[in-house]
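INTERNAL TRANSFER SHEET
From: sequence group
To: structure group
Subject: histidine kinase

Please process the attached sequence and return the structure record in the designated field. Keep the field labels unchanged so the import script can parse them.
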Amino acid sequence: MFKHSIFLRVYAGLLILVFLVATFGYLLVQIINYQRAQEYRESLTDGLAFIISEGIARQPNEQQKSDWVSDASDLLELPIYYVKSNQVDLTRAESKRIEERKAVVRWDAQTTAAYIILGLKDDPEHLLYIKADNITERQMKALPVFILDYLVYYPGQEKQYLEKIQHHFSYPISIQSVQNLPLDSEQIGRLRLDHSIILYRDSATERGTTISIVSPIPSSTSEVLVMGPVPLFNWMPFQLAAGITLLSLFVLSLGVYGLLIPMQRKLRAVNYALNKMKGGDLTVRLPVDGTDEFGTLASSYNSMSDHIERLIEAQRELMRAVSHELRTPVARIRFGVEMMADEDDYDYRQQQVEQIDKDIEALNTLIDEIMTYAKLEQGMPSLEFEDVSLFEVLDQVLIETEALKTGKQLELQAPPIGVIVETERRYLHRVIQNLVGNAVRYCDDRVLMSGGVDDDGMAYICVEDDGPGIPEEDRQRIFDAFARLDDSRTRASGGYGLGLSIVSRIAYWFGGTVVIDASPELGGARFTMRWPATRFKKQSKRKAELKDSNEPDAN
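Return from structure group:
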């Protein structure tokens, strides 16, 4: 079912495509966020790396540097190691950051610990190695101490030097008046006790939640050092969400286009073929790729083109043949009328009237044959299938043919009366009548009729004669309209060459076939038509009915 429906494949393809795009978007967000988180961690520590590097550089000797590092470790409550630079393996990007006096942050997702590597000013042989596995407010409140320690060396110029080092920080640092800050009395009291405070601010803007660290300045009672606001890391900022959404929609649109382009190509081929057909060119055929709706459409179009082409050709042949067949009786009628006009003998005139009447009857018969053939050739006629006793139809044709006093011997090897087949009685009668009439016309003496249902569930009727038979090379051509053979089956035998064409078309619309071979019993031609004995019932039920039918031969 799935492979036979192009729409199910498109819907399934869309579902798979949406899943793949969603997975792609999720992985892309994770990769981008990992990189953003790394850049965020490094941006927060870059300023600290500069300040610590400046603080250590001010120490005159190795011992004091070690003591300074030890005090910083106690203040931050984090292990800080003063190590040789050759003891730490750095990548090219990390070495570049160290040269630019920026921090290197290595994040361990399993232990959620950050390892911070800091370079030292004028000391390329040493590095600071910090392990930060648990950042609390204590560490955050200790950060302003390092900035204040740096500003101690520039009394009265604190604001100017803060502006000079601002580019090392990703967040603002400034000295502000306490009165300009949105602080309550409790927070102001804590500042007067030389305690740093942390301010959390929620905002509906793009920055979201921010943190500011406010620390008192020992030399001033009205001004404080403010670090921040520092935005918290946003895992899904608007720009990232919009970018991923647009990219996902673009990938999805490409995938949908890839799913629909084969349909568009096939529709274009169908449109091209239809335009050719509209212009009168019926030679274009569509490739039948697969068994889906487009494959069915292509197959139906090809069948329609074949049928239309065959109808047009049949119409041309019919017009040529009809014009030819009509000339003879019309010419005889015209000749008879002319003869009557110049003849006074009543008997002769009566003879001509009888001949004209026969020609008119021949014209009526020809017209009836043409109309029947045209109806069967143009499209499927209105068929009313019903259960029919095969014996009754064969016996009816036998009685009707014997009533014509043909002088030929007709035999019926009838099936049991209980053999029922689903068929259109009127057209089945026409088939048997045409075949028997054809056999009577060309046989020497005997005609044999038979019928039944074989083991494959196919009904059949068979008409044989003891005539000269039909050469094998002519057996297919004899079903063409107005076809006559050059041997014994000539115009002198009568007929218009439409009887067998009608039989062929009825067999086609019955879903069966008609074949010609040599009669093994009589030696002449044998015509056999086969079609499904049942159209709606199960074959097993039909076989059971045949098995239960034990009536003797009615003949």
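Handover comment: Residues 329 and 362 are 7 Å apart (CA to CA). Confidence is low (pLDDT under 50) at residues 486-494, 536-547, 549-555.
Transfer complete.
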